[in-house]
Specification:
mainly alpha; Arc Repressor Mutant, subunit A; 2 domains; 7 helices
Length: 135
Amino acid sequence: MCLWHSKPGRASHADLSAVVGDITLNVLRNPRRGRRLPVVSLEQPGVQHLVDRVHAEHERPEARLERAELRDMLAAQVAALPARERVAVVLRHIQELSYSEMATLLQQPLGTVKANVHRGIKRLRAALHTYAEWR
């Protein structure tokens, strides 16, 4: 029943396995989607201290400068990635596409798409690690 009511325009024989995969993932994710973090009163002992620390951290000019430097460095590193890895990382982590959507869009096998994302993220992590050591 879920299969035919989920995505009426997509259920053809060619992409039936993709639809079934999407439905399976959604069925597994649904129980977690309703969970919410508990509400904490700001009047509780110790909470105001944490709020003050967060506000102080965001107001420091040094913290803003460090975040801007990190953002610029990451943008430069993403731009320096090989094209196939850059496209994969941007589609996955900035555009938030699923791997199956990316594979369809890029007309590549799913494994290739996953490998390109993995390689791109690995290069970015290495650059971030080098940046952290330099600082």
